[in-house]
Amino acid sequence: MKIVAQIKDPVIREMELFENKFRDSMSSKVALLNRITYYIVNRKGKQMRPMFVFLTAKLLNNGEVNERTYRGASIIELIHTASLVHDDVVDESNKRRGFFSINALWKNKIAVLVGDYLFSKGLLLSLDHGDFDLLRIISVAVREMSEGELLQIEKARRLDIVEDVYYDIIRQKTATLIAACCSMGACSVKPDSEEVETFRKFGEYCGMAFQIKDDLFDYGDQQIGKPTGIDIKEQKMTLPLIYALNNCSKKEKKWLINSVKNHNRDKKRVREVIQFVKDQGGLDYAERKMHEFKRLALDILLTYPQTNYRDSLELMVNYVVDRKK
């Protein structure tokens, strides 16, 4: 059995029911919107985020979920999808998971409006049922995702990033949504319990490891859906690069900053930067840090009794760092 199917197995019934509820949560009286949301739903990814919601809820509630769990998963997926649609506009990207993006097919104006519509549907889904605790979790995540993206843009302009700021960026930009999934799952079945914060931390550590793994792909040789060196071209300061900058001579640092700032479109120069970062031990260091975050996540998980839900979450944590794309 493939690893993702293994992870999904204990929540397969919930995931099937969720897909119907999620499709319903997107519906509109506007035919154009329904056409676009149908396109989105039929090109979904692995749906790891809803799986985090259901597995956490079932782990904490003797294998049971409730309607709030389904709403929590739908809220997460609506907000996540909205952010992807907006990201493709911001990044001027024409492809998403191998398919044409919304902005490529329907242009930027429609894509922005569709993203706004999905955001509002996510917020209304919680408001309409009085799920103010779930609304708070997702609202904090949306705020942090926006701040993280803007902080990254600000730092890319000056290239003055230190390791702690990098962790702030990836915690807000990536980890906060996975943290929201896990705290949403906990909150849906155990509102006002300590578990809501415990699983927020668990999700955050998973998300940190996930983003560092993504950073490492920029230096790899595998075909992973994004070309090698794309982060350097976009002047994104990733952990391997930060480590290399902080552990080289003044002359090398000057060359490195100049390369990233002024020669990021030169393929030969980008290859030289990638090799330099590898030679400085940047990849090894980032891998060590990634495994530290993985260990922190597993330390939380292993305090709970062994069940197939815990096993799946453990598989998920390992999959985050072992995946090939």
Notes on the structure:
- With 325 residues, the chain is an all-alpha fold.
- Helix content is 75%, strand content 1%.
- It has helices spanning 3-8, 12-25, 31-41, 48-60, 67-90, 102-127, 132-158, 163-189, 194-217, 230-233, 239-246, 250-262, 267-279, 282-301, 308-322; strands at residues 95-96, 99-100.
- The protein has a two-stranded antiparallel sheet with strand order 1-2.
- A hairpin with a 2-residue loop joins β1 (95-96) and β2 (99-100).
- α5 (67-90) packs antiparallel against α6 and α11 (239-246) crosses α14 (282-301).
- The mean pLDDT is 86.
What keyword list fits this structure?
two-stranded antiparallel ribbon, globular, mainly alpha, 325 residues
Give the topology.
Elements: H1 3-8, H2 12-25, H3 31-41, H4 48-60, H5 67-90, E1 95-96, E2 99-100, H6 102-127, H7 132-158, H8 163-189, H9 194-217, H10 230-233, H11 239-246, H12 250-262, H13 267-279, H14 282-301, H15 308-322
Antiparallel strand pairs: 1-2
Helix pairs in contact: 2-5, 4-5, 4-8, 4-15, 5-6, 5-8, 7-8, 8-9, 9-14, 9-15, 11-14, 14-15
